[in-house]
Amino acid sequence: VQLVESGGGSVQAGGSLRLSCTASRYPTSSYCLGWFRQFPEKDREGVAAIDRAGSPTYTYSVKDRFTISKDNVQNTLYLQMNSLEPDDTAMYFCAADFYNLQLGRSYAYWGQGTQVTVS
After folding, report:
1. Average pLDDT over residues 38-58
2. Which of 38, 64, 81, 105 is the most buried (most CB within 10 A)?
3. What is the dihedral of CA 23, 27, 33, 37, to 10 degrees?
4. Rg of the Cα atoms in the chain
5. Which letter does DSSP use for residue 104 in this model?
6. CB 97 within 8 A of CB 31
7. What is the Cα 67 distance to its own chain's centre?
8. How far is 82 from 51, CA to CA, in rounded Å?
9. Alpha carbon of residue 10 to chain centroid
10. How does pLDDT run across 67-119, given as a tens digit for each residue?
C-alpha cells in the first residue's frame, strides 16, 4: 500500500490549504483513513480521520476549521484547512488501516509527509 501526500506549502495566518493523499493497491473505500501531524521533537498527533462510511472525526483544535473528505473514485483523501494558525505549522501525514483506528497512531500504512508552514 502506497500513500502519497501533496498540497503542503507556506501560507499566511488566516489562509487556506488543501492537502491530498492518493492511495494505491486498494480503493479508499477499503480503508479507514487519517491525517496526522508532527511538531518538531514531538509525537505525531491525530488531526482528522474518516471511516469507510465517510463519518469524520476531528481533534478539538481543528474542529470547525479543517474538513476531511475522500473521493473513492479518485482514491484520494483530502484535508481542507481553513483559518490556518501558526500553531498548525507541522509535517502532515496521511495514514490508512483496515481497522477503524480513528485518531489512534497505530495505523499500518503511512505517507511520507508534506510540510505546512503558517506565518
Report:
1. 94
2. 81
3. 10
4. 13
5. -
6. yes
7. 9
8. 22
9. 17
10. 999 999 999 999 999 999 999 999 999 999 999 889 988 999 999 999 999 99
